[in-house]
Amino acid sequence: MDPERRRVGWWLNTARSHARTLTARWPGWTVEFWEDRWAEHERASGGRFAPPAPDRAAALAEVRDHALERWAGPRGDARARIVAAHPHWVVGHGFAPGVTAAEAAVARSVIEAAHAAAAGL
Question: Which single residue of 19, 74, 88, 105 has CA 20 to 30 Å from 43?
């Protein structure tokens, strides 16, 4: 927020859905939506905000680890087990599908290959 220049900026993706409401609430102000563009936030802060430089290797390893955790371990259908154990509960559909041991092995191979290619290994 810059009161002198009557400018306000949002850097969250969800702010755009409220664009009309926000501009109506800030008459005479310039309202900007930076989404996830950190450089815009950094520029507007005049050096008061400077996120650390991204660590590409760490980011790739984190994505790999999350993918391995989700897809490369055999598991049954967690949703089906919960519904069977608690038939009166309302259970959503956001659970990952069951993965067989064979599918998990293929997934592990694909994930490790994709990580190696992205990391230049």
Answer: 19
Pairing status of strand 7-10 against strand 30-33: parallel
Residue 83 identity (one-letter amino acid): V
Inter-residue contact 28 to 6 (CB < 8 Å): yes
Residue 28: CB atoms within 10 Å? 5
* Sign of CA pseudo-dihedral 66, 69, 72, 77: negative
Which of the pair, 98 or 33, is modelled with greater confidence? 33
Burial 89-105 (b: 16+ CB within 10 A, else e): eeeeeeeeeebeeeebe
**The tokens 């790999």 sit on which residue?**
64
Tell whether pTM > 0.85. no
| CA–CA dist 118, 112 (Å, integer) | 10
User: Could you give the percent of the chain with pLDDT greater than 90?
Assistant: 25
Question: What integer pLDDT is reported at residue 18 of this predicted model?
Answer: 67
Looking at residue 49, the DSSP 8-state letter turns out to be -
